[in-house]
Amino acid sequence: LKHMNQYIGDLAEGSLDGDLDIHDCTETENISNTFNIMLARLRLVEESRQEFVANVSHELKTPLTSMKVLADSLLMQGDAPVELYKEFMQDIANEIDRESSVISDLLTLVKMDRKSTELNVASTDINDFIEQILKRLRPIAEKANIELVFESNRSVTAEIDATKLSLAFSNLVENAIKYNRENGWVRVSLDADHKFFYVKVSDSGIGIPQESIDYIFERFYRVDKSHSREIGGTGLGLAITRSAVVAHRGAIKVQSTVDEGTTFIVRIPLRYIV
Ligand code: ADP
Q: Where is the HAMP domain (predicted)?
C-alpha cells in the first residue's frame, strides 16, 4: 500500500513522467481504482477485526458479569440456607462451563484458521468415519428423544483430515439435535460421484428464518441469542465447520424452512488438492 501510495503521489507530481505518460488518464485511473479497491478491502478487514474483538470481549464478559452478580448477592445474604448457597453455586458452575466452551471454541477456530493450509490428510473410509461420529453423538440424541439415522449405500474412500472434518460434521449433527423438536429426527446421508463425496445432515427442527441464512456461518451469530444461550450455544460452531470444509477445498450450503427443518449439504473432494 505504501508503495502504491508513493507511486500515485509520484504520478501526480509528474516525477514518473519518464516511465509513464502522466497524461495517460487510463493508466492513472486504473492504478487509482486498484488502490481504492485495496483500501476498501483493508477497511473491511479492519472493521471485521474490530467487530470480532468486540464480540469476543462481550461473550467472555457476560458469564463473568453473571458470576459477579451471583457471588455478590450470596455475600449479602448473611445467614442464607445452605440450599440457596447450593443453587447459586450451581448457577456459577454453569457460567464457568459457558466461559470454558467459548474459550475452547475460540482456540479451535484460531487453530483451524491459522493452519487451514496444513491439513493432516490420510485416506479414510468415510462410512466408518461418519459411523464413529454418530456413535459418539447417539447418547445426546437419545437423551433429547431424537431419532438419529445414517443412510449410505456405497463405499467411499477419500483423503481427509479426520480430526478437522470430524469437528465439522459433529457440529452439524449436534445443531440438528439441539435445534430440533420433541420426538424429532436427524438424518445423515452419504453419497459420492467420481470427484466428490456429499454429506447431508437433515433435521425436523425449528428451521432458520430466511433473513438469517446468510449470517449463520459468521462468528458469534445466533438466530435467537437467548434460546441458543439456554441450550448452550457459543455461536462459533458453524464458523468452525465452514473453516474445516474450506480447508478441504470443499463447499457447504444450507436449505431451511421455519418450523419444518433444516438441511446442510457438505461437498468434499475425494482427493485432497494442495
Ligand atoms: P451455536 O453455538 O449457537 O449453535 P452455531 O454457529 O453452531 O452456533 O450456529 C449458529 C446459529 O445458527 C445457531 O445459534 C442457530 O440459531 C442456527 N442454527 C444452526 N444450525 C441449526 C439447525 N440445524 N436448525 C436451526 N437453527 C440452526
A: 1-47
For 141-153, write each residue's pLDDT tens digit.
999 999 999 999 9
Cβ contacts of 160 within 8 Å, gap of 6 or more? 119, 121, 122, 124, 126, 129, 248, 268, 272
The C-alpha atoms of residue 105 and residue 112 are separated, in whole angstroms, by 10
Percentages of the chain per state (helix, strand, coil), in multiples of 5: 55, 15, 25
Q: Which residue has the cell 493452519?
A: 115
Ligand 1 closest atom vs CA 180: 24
The answer to whether 137 touches 173, Cβ cutoff 8 Å, is: yes
Residue 235 CA to ligand 1 centre (angstroms): 7
82: helix, strand or coil = helix
Residues 149-204 have pLDDT tens digits of 999 999 999 999 999 999 999 999 999 999 999 999 999 999 999 999 999 999 99
